[in-house]
Design a protein that fits this description.
By secondary structure, the protein is an alpha/beta fold. It contains 15 helices and 17 strands.
């Protein structure tokens, strides 16, 4: 295959969390795959379509945002400093009922995707209503997406009759499966307290039929079990297990209040967890027992949640907060090392989502999802180790982004979208939100 892109004069962190580091190297991309990489001493000459010299930048795998609601950029900062139940039922659900349309989902998803690409995220797991518009936005911008159609047991945007929620989800799966190499469809059953037992079972059967993941918010607060209409266990996880929902294609988001026995149960069933520490902290939901989950061998990823709760879709910011939060209790500096968090945000996150783990590694044959971080910035100097990416890094330091072999951000500029137009149209929608609050 023809070598189409050469990235030269970059430092390389091939496997975040690992020991290998190349001080000055090159990467050759052919098609959508990494064809060669190594030290600049071995950099090839000859017929290569495009060359990019990135002196002073670090090449590493693109970040994997394990949980997001992209269209909720519209509600960023709308209802801050509230606990989850108040925030959700008194503010977010009513605003969604008024504002969520296909146009809104499309526009606000483009804004979210731009934010993520510009800050180094190349893969996102998203769950929302009108999810086909999220999938289109990601495809248009050139971002990899595990797009999950939301299922919930009350009238919702695009699903006015909740009795048809599974039918709508199946149409989405049938429409997007195998359609675009960047998009993998899935199902997002909102939570055990907003979905009946029958809906949860039907959602699982549907995902098994199509061989795709099922996402759920689980144990986000300590009051969740009391909110479940017909609980079948002593914890939300036991409830899901009694319904036959937990298996290796189930991804439990938040999992803040997972008990020791819950963690053992998740391990037995092979289910994965995605933690969203900033959102959980801001909504006063709590802190997931992340170190215990990792010690138990669970597949664990990290996500930003939507911009309405976490406010930022910057995974560098999320990594730093996660690493420091989980040291506070049990007051142990080694509780969650930075290298562990970097792994969770790259190949570990891909594994948690059921994606090939080479998606989060820079190795020959892997998908060419690569970000280049400017190490010359003052906050990354001196660059003693990869830990600095977690404790000092920020998305603003990302200069170039390659997704599936395509250069979608070059010198800090998004190449695939007209950002002025997108931001202008979103601001008009935001004015309507404020007019109705």
């Amino acid at each position: 295959m023809k070598r189409e892109l050469l990235v030269r004069n970059c430092a390389i962190l091939p496997v975040p969390g690992g020991d290998t580091y190349i001080e000055s190297g090159y990467i050759v991309i052919a098609g959508n795959r990494i064809a060669e990489l190594g030290s600049m001493e071995d950099c090839p000459d000859g017929d290569i379509g495009t060359e990019v010299d990135v002196q002073g930048q670090l090449a590493m795998p693109g970040l994997v945002n394990g949980h997001c609601h992209a269209p909720m950029t519209l509600f960023r900062g709308m209802a801050d400093d509230l606990e989850l139940a108040n925030w959700l039922h008194q503010h977010i659900f009513p605003a969604e009922a008024r504002m969520v349309t296909r146009e809104m989902v499309s526009l606000c998803s483009l804004l979210a995707v731009a934010e993520m690409l510009l800050s180094g995220t190349t893969t996102v797991a998203d769950g929302y209503f009108h999810e086909e518009s999220v999938a289109h936005a990601c495809s248009q911008a050139g971002m990899r997406c595990l797009a999950a159609q939301a299922v919930i047991d009350f009238p919702a945007p695009g699903v006015e009759d909740p009795k048809k929620n599974i039918e709508v989800a199946e149409r989405f799966l049938a429409s997007w499966q195998g359609r675009d190499p960047l998009i993998q469809p899935a199902v997002f059953a909102h939570s055990p307290y907003t979905c009946s037992n029958e809906t949860l079972k039907s959602a699982k059967v549907l995902t098994q039929k199509y061989g795709v993941p099922l996402f759920l918010h689980v144990a986000e607060t300590d009051r969740e079990l009391a909110q479940i209409a017909q609980p079948l266990g002593a914890t939300p996880f036991e409830h899901l297990d009694a319904l036959g929902v937990l298996d290796s294609r189930t991804i439990c988001v938040h999992s803040v209040w997972a008990t020791e026995s819950d963690i053992a149960l998740l391990k037995r069933r092979g289910a994965a967890v995605v933690t969203c520490p900033q959102s959980n902290a801001k909504l006063a939901s709590g802190r997931a027992p992340l170190a215990d989950m990792i010690a138990a061998g669970l597949r664990v990823g990290i996500g930003t949640d939507g911009a309405a709760s976490g406010n930022s879709l910057d995974m560098f910011r999320e990594m730093g907060f996660a690493a420091m939060l989980h040291k506070v209790q049990p007051n142990r500096a080694t509780a969650l090392p930075a290298a562990e968090v970097l792994a969770m945000a790259t190949h570990g996150g891909a594994d948690a989502l059921g994606l090939p783990t080479d998606l989060g590694r820079l190795v020959v044959g892997a998908p060419a999802d690569i970000i280049l971080v400017d190490l010359a910035q003052p906050h990354l100097q001196p660059f003693h180790s990869q830990n600095l990416l977690v404790y000092s890094g920020c998305g603003a330091g990302v200069r170039n982004v390659i997704v599936d072999g395509r250069l979608v951000v070059r010198d800090g500029m998004l190449q695939t979208l007209d950002m002025g137009e997108v931001k202008g149209r979103v601001r008009k929608l935001a004015a309507k939100v404020l007019a109705n609050t």
